[in-house]
Amino acid sequence: MPLITLTSDLGIKDNYVALVKAAILSNIEGASIVDISHDVEKFNLTHTAYIFGNAYKFFPAGTIHLVGVKSQETAKRLLYIEIDNQKIICLDNGFITLLQNNDKAKVFYFASTEFDAGLFFLKDAMVKALQALTTQPDILKSCNDYVQLMQFMPTVTPQSIIGRCLHIDDFGNVVTNITKAFFEAESAGRKFVISLPGVEIEKIVNDYDDVSANTALALFNTFGYLEIAINREKASKLLFPKSMHTNTDFNISIQFED
After folding, report:
1. I need a labelling partner for 79 at 20 to 30 A (CA). Which of 132, 190, 239, 249 fits?
2. pTM
């Protein structure tokens, strides 16, 4: 019984996700389907890599993951990837190169134009490709010319780290691309201040309730990324400009004291 996960930017307002599941259940006998997320930002591969990349490795070995997110650029070819004992089908748009340990990935492409991504590629081309994996073993060809993207790393000066927002969760917590290991290496035990509109944060806590209600805080989340939050409130709405709290296109600055 194949276990299949879905990750997309389709949202849940429309019937698109239901149609994808209907196609899988109609064509893949005994399939079980798990949703990772359908609310990643439209066309945002960095956001997709954060959401998917911190979930897929926890599934049983051999799980097949369909990642249905395009980028702003046109991508028609489908890729098949084996990494961390998992199997991924995604577009050849650079997504795979944004995952951790991507250098260990085995990458193939579907060697037929019948699998080219069309209008509803997640339902049509990807499900067809998934079905073909069991019936056409020669459909996969080794691939070394797939699209590669540069991961956005924090910028460092002797006195600062400039990070970027990766994700805003349903609680309004702002997740940055600054990892615990990166922060500890660059801070070297120095005092620091995270300057935000109307508030400054000068320490890292372990839990949201380490501060009183409605108080801003910084912590490293379950996946080891620096997160800005407000206990019992939405940091995205209270700490950042209104024009920013609906997307992830802004920076986070940390200043160090010698």
Report:
1. 249
2. 0.88
